[in-house]
Amino acid sequence: MPLDDHTEAVLPPMHPGEVLREEFMVPLGLSAGKIARACGVPRTRIERIAAEEIGISTDTALRLGRFFKTSPDLWINLQKQFEIESLFREIGADIERITPFEQEAA
Known about the structure:
- Helices cover 61% and strands 0% of the residues.
- The protein is mostly helical and 106 residues long.
- Helix 2 (32-39) crosses helix 3 and helix 4 packs across helix 5 (72-96).
């Protein structure tokens, strides 16, 4: 369906598996099996992350960080941002109805 002048396309939140797949696996020619063996995790874990079926746990973030010479924070932050954006799409209206706390002046 074409977008009119007043409608913007809203992209889904970026899953950390997309980053793993598109920024690491594809350009470096790495299979899920190779990454899994190097990281000491089941191949299916890497496959499911790359397929955007599951998220990245702290354990996996530590392992991917070591393997790819990145910070584990990179992977955790990608996961956290994905979860925040996804959940806000579901409950954003409820969140917007919360009145922020303001301390009264003394």
